[in-house]
Amino acid sequence: MLYEWIQQLSFAREWVLPFLGLVPVLAWIQWRSRRTMRPAFRVSTAAVFRVRTLRQNLLGLPNIFRYLALACIIVALARPQIKDVQERNRGEGIAIVLCIDVSGSMLSQDFSPNRLAVARAVAGDFVKARPVDQIGLVVFSGEAFTQYPISTDHEALLEQVKNIRSGMLQDGTLIGEGLATAVQRLEDVPAKSRVIILLTDGREEAPETRIIDPETALGIARAKGVKVYTIGMGSDVVVASAEGGARRTANVDEPLLQRIASTTGGAYFRARDRQALEGVYARINRLEKSDVQVVRKTRYYEEFHWFLAAALLFLLLELALRYTLFRTLP
């Protein structure tokens, strides 16, 4: 703890610190002068002086305390400080809703460890790269649910992104209801731009309980002026053709995703692996720029009083030893 505290110290008057070099010089001068001025007298034998007591071994301790006090005073005069730099991001951001498919197929392992785990990780990195944006989270499968409302509290949002699980909703793939729910979250949000990033690995499956189909959701998004970026996630599959050969095809409904994106002014992307998905989010990050300003505030905490307290302690120790244990007659 003390070592970390010392590492954080900086000095407002660094030009004072070289004077610390005077401390050993003064100590050496005193040591030399005491040797040359030491009194001498004749004795018949010096054997008794070869036996040194603890008191004799510690005779120099008061001087050590004196020079330690002097060193602490010099450091205090250099004004040691701890600098605390606080940064705050501000500016005009964009309102974004991450709309993520959590159907059972998102557990496919063509992405390692699976599609949903990679989608969570990459979406989290995207949130961290948008410090001033208002971001929300909608998940969908056989139904749609607002996992986190639009907010600038990104720490809480990241926790919700980590908590996305397949099976948390009725299974299925209702792209239309996911899109409609995301549009609804953006409807009353004041922002210079409102964006949805819709990620899915499948195609619309329409049970009898479906409320909003994709075309209706697309019309709502266009009417509300919401831009939608769509991402088709997953590797291609090989299927047999009627001619007896084989061809590669995607499980995702690419025509629908392309139509949603182009109609709302967004773009459609295909992500066949993690690197491609990261590239998609990086491209969206470049396309949707926020006006970010970093406000930096620096505060200094003075720490010189600790060194003055240490100097006072060393001086008191010197005086206590000099007038008790090492007291000498005049």
From TrEMBL:
PANTHER family the record matches: LEUCINE ZIPPER PROTEIN 4, SPORE GERMINATION PROTEIN
Organism classification: Bacteria, Pseudomonadati, Bacteroidota, Chitinophagia, Chitinophagales
Name assigned to this protein: VWA domain-containing protein
Provenance organism: Flaviaesturariibacter amylovorans
Record field: transmembrane: 12-31, 306-325
VWFA domain: residues covered: 95-284
Keyword field contains Lipid biosynthesis: no
SMART domains registered for this protein in UniProt: VWA (SM00327)
PROSITE patterns documented for this protein: VWFA
Keyword annotations from UniProtKB, A to Z: Cell membrane, Membrane, Transmembrane, Transmembrane helix
